[in-house]
């Protein structure tokens, strides 16, 4: 009986999250805001990629904003804020992912009328975010070559559920003895149609291709 109760509660939670995510998406669409959920392990480079894209968008006259999700702290929030864009910090405490309810509250704090694009940086994790859509247009998964060439094989679900895959830190591939093409091939096996992009965010390599893949 206890097990059945847990299953029912889990199903209710996911159903409620889906409803809120759909409402978030309707709100963002009504404001003409393109939105992206960035997922990836801690240290994959998703914050730096978002920062670089924000600067590129601002140079094109676009108006980006961000939601910074972390278990604790405001390090990424401060990094986004330093680029002069609207940003909200979300701390999840013990939870290993953002959910649509948290994003709903964050949207209330953002000046949506002054934004064209929203980046939602999820908590550093490749497992937990998979079951919790946030209401964004696309989910973007970021991994780095420094995490090893088995990352896709170990976490196939998040790659199967993503709209764009970014393999970052390719400048370090030889130093860590990883062939980025292995990661590309693995991603294509679980999600044949997904764009897989190779980047060196630190030096700006591949970011124009990311902009194109995101339709920016």
How would you sum up this structure, described in words?
- The chain contains 8 helices and 7 strands; from the N terminus they run H-E-H-E-H-E-H-E-E-H-H-E-H-E-H.
- By secondary structure, the chain is of the alpha/beta class.
- The protein has a single domain, classed as P-loop containing nucleotide triphosphate hydrolases (Rossmann fold, 3-Layer(aba) Sandwich), CATH 3.40.50.
- Strand 2 (64-70), helix 3 (75-81) and strand 3 (87-91) form a beta-alpha-beta unit.
- Helix 1 (2-30) packs parallel to helix 4 (100-109).
- The relative contact order is 0.18.
- The model is unreliable at 1-7 (pLDDT under 50).
Q: Helical region count?
A: 8
Choose one word for the global shape. globular
Termini Cα gap? 50 Å
Q: Sketch the topology as an H/E string, one letter per element.
A: HEHEHEHEEHHEHEH
- Overall mean pLDDT stands at 94
Strand order within the widest beta sheet: 3-2-4-1-5-6-7
CATH class: Alpha Beta
Computed structural class: alpha/beta
How would a crystallographer describe the biggest sheet? 7 strands, parallel
CATH superfamily: P-loop containing nucleotide triphosphate hydrolases
Q: What CATH architecture would you give? A: 3-Layer(aba) Sandwich
Strand content: 15-25%
Share of residues in helices: 40-55%
List the domain count as a whole number.
Answer: 1
